[in-house]
């Protein structure tokens, strides 16, 4: 016989809970209504109708004007590129999750941050930093620290996989900064399941976050990712932490990018650039040179463009090569670009600008392993292919950017003036940009800007074609 609640007089009903986000429901459903995950709603054995009684207030609520915000002032990490992503530094008591693929350099970056934060060269304040590693031994971490020069007197190492032992280390040291590498390797004896499981990750994250808030201790958590690039573990992990950063990079490239996809204390449109070398990881304040080839003479099939990574303009180069096809269906290959969008642009170039690409294999790629997904790269892609077709090199000091539509129109893109100023700073003198109702903004002295409405106008500016009537004088170096 079912027992009734002594407080409400009602019989508790059997509940169901989502293992990903913790959403509860009175009946079973195949899909979670909160996180939209399939097959994660499981029987919980907890009544969804129960409520929590009010308790005595320990700290009364304050007027917002009386709250002291100085305790939440930014603390610089010592790595300017990471500070840029975080919005100025780390907030005391904040919990930051850094996720990335294996081997991308997460541990190297955080070990460098730990050492520089512990040294605190700009101030005399002593900062204790605790680095908890669950994937390596303390000796292995020390070897990496020696290699990259990340040794500090107040940097402490401990190799722990038990959550209770790790929290004991925190209570004994009371560090200013805690780094856990990684959250999937810790496990609690009070929770069933192996390390990295949904219940274990939820318990580990909740305990570390509670300790961070109670001790006003900044905490950096390393997170693994799944095959599709999403953060491993329950979705609840991303909801609980204050900042979620994604660490990206090609395995065969030295460039690494850090993006904030969630930030309660700063912007989410900033990008930090790093160069991963054998001597450690170095912040790149000006990474544009990595994405542009260094050729003495102009070569056909190349075009320089300016992309915006968040709010940061970066120069990049698009290269194209056309070769006679040996099959009835020409090949279309793209590296560092969206292949379906490149195929669409090739069709627009053929239909709207009269470039005959039938019978030719098309290869389009970026320089330096950078990935360009912004629609503003369309014009540079089309002009690179047209340059390869006409065998005419685009001038060395010219850039082009703009979105190309199916009708051949060149559409405005955000940040036109910002892109132009970045190109001028790096020595470029000409630009082909989309016509915008607001114009190109302030133009640097000595810089020439040509606005185009249609792809054919850009073709007229750059290439001589006997079958096309010339209307605009070509740009010269």
For the structure shown, list the relevant keywords:
nine-stranded mixed β-sheet, zinc ion binding, 21 strands, 477 residues, zinc-finger, hydrolase, alpha/beta, 3 domains, DNA repair, Rossmann fold, four-stranded mixed β-sheet, Ribosomal Protein S5, domain 2
Helix and strand arrangement:
Elements: E1 16-18, E2 24-25, E3 41-43, H1 80-86, E4 95-100, H2 106-119, E5 129-133, H3 138-148, E6 155-159, H4 163-173, E7 177-181, H5 198-215, E8 218-223, H6 236-240, E9 243-248, E10 255-263, E11 271-277, E12 280-283, E13 302-309, E14 312-324, E15 332-335, H7 339-352, E16 360-366, H8 378-390, E17 398-400, E18 403-404, E19 410-411, H9 416-425, E20 430-434, E21 448-452, H10 455-462
Parallel strand pairs: 4-8, 4-9, 5-6, 5-7, 7-8, 15-16, 17-20, 20-21
Antiparallel strand pairs: 1-2, 1-3, 9-10, 10-11, 11-12, 13-14, 14-16, 18-19
Helix pairs in contact: 7-8
Q: How would you explain this protein's 3D organization?
A:
With 477 residues, this protein is an alpha/beta fold. It folds into three domains: 10-67, no CATH class; 73-285, P-loop containing nucleotide triphosphate hydrolases (Rossmann fold, 3-Layer(aba) Sandwich); 289-462, Ribosomal Protein S5, domain 2, CATH 3.30.230.10. It has ten helices and 21 strands. The chain has helices at 80-86, 106-119, 138-148, 163-173, 198-215, 236-240, 339-352, 378-390, 416-425, 455-462; strands at 16-18, 24-25, 41-43, 95-100, 129-133, 155-159, 177-181, 218-223, 243-248, 255-263, 271-277, 280-283, 302-309, 312-324, 332-335, 360-366, 398-400, 403-404, 410-411, 430-434, 448-452. It has a nine-stranded mixed β-sheet with strand order 6-5-7-8-4-9-10-11-12, sandwiched between helices. Helix 7 packs across helix 8 (378-390). The protein is elongated and about 75 Å long. The model is unreliable at 1-12 and 465-474 (pLDDT under 50). It comes from Arthrobacter terrae. One of its GO terms (molecular function) is ATP binding. Belongs to the RecA family. RadA subfamily. InterPro entries: AAA+_ATPase, DNA_repair_RadA, P-loop_NTPase, RecA_ATP-bd, Ribosomal_Su5_D2-typ_SF, Ribsml_uS5_D2-typ_fold_subgr, Rubredoxin_2. Keywords: ATP-binding, DNA damage, DNA repair, DNA-binding, Hydrolase, Metal-binding, Nucleotide-binding, Stress response, Zinc, Zinc-finger.
């Amino acid at each position: 016989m079912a027992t009734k609640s002594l407080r409400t007089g009602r019989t508790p009903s059997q509940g169901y809970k989502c293992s990903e986000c913790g959403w509860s429901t009175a009946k079973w459903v195949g899909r979670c209504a909160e996180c939209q995950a399939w097959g994660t709603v499981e029987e919980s054995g907890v009544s969804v109708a129960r409520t929590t009684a009010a308790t005595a207030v320990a700290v009364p609520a304050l007027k917002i004007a009386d709250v002291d915000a100085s305790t939440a002032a930014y603390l610089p990490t010592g790595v300017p590129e990471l500070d840029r992503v975080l919005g100025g530094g780390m907030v005391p008591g904040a919990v930051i999750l850094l996720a990335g693929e294996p081997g991308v350099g997460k541990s190297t970056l955080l070990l460098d941050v730990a050492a520089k934060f512990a040294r605190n060269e700009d101030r005399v304040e002593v900062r204790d930093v605790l680095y908890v590693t669950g994937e390596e031994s303390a000796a292995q971490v020390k070897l990496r620290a020696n290699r990259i020069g990340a040794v500090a007197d107040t940097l402490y190492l401990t190799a722990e996989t038990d959550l209770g032992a790790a929290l004991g280390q925190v209570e004994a040291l009371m560090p200013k900064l805690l780094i856990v590498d990684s959250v999937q390797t810790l496990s609690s004896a009070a929770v069933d399941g192996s390390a990295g499981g949904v219940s274990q990750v939820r318990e580990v994250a909740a305990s570390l976050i509670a300790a961070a808030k109670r001790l006003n201790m900044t905490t950096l958590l390393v997170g693994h990712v799944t095959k599709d690039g999403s953060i491993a573990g329950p979705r609840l992990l991303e909801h609980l932490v204050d900042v979620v950063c994604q660490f990206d990079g090609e395995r065969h490239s030295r460039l690494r990018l850090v993006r904030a996809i969630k930030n309660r204390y700063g912007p989410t449109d900033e990008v930090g650039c790093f160069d991963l070398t054998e001597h450690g990881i170095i912040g790149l304040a000006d990474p544009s040179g990595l994405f542009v080839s260094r050729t003495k003479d102009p070569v056909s099939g190349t075009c320089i463009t300016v992309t915006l990574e968040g709010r940061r303009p970066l120069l990049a180069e698009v290269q194209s090569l056309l070769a006679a096809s040996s099959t009835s269906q020409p090949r279309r290959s793209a590296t560092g670009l969206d292949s379906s969008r490149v195929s669409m642009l090739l069709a627009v170039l053929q239909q709207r600008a009269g470039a005959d690409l039938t019978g030719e294999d098309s290869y389009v790629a970026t320089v330096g392993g950078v990935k360009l997904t912004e629609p503003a790269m369309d014009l540079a892609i089309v002009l690179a292919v047209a340059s390869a077709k006409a065998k005419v090199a685009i001038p060395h000091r010219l850039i082009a950017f703009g979105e190309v539509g199916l009708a051949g129109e060149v559409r405005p893109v955000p940040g036109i003036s910002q892109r132009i100023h970045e190109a001028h700073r790096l020595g470029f003198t000409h630009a082909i940009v989309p016509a915008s109702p607001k114009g190109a903004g302030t133009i640097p002295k000595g810089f020439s800007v040509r606005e185009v409405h249609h792809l054919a106008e850009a073709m007229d500016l750059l290439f001589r074609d006997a079958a096309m009537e010339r209307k605009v004088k070509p740009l010269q170096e």
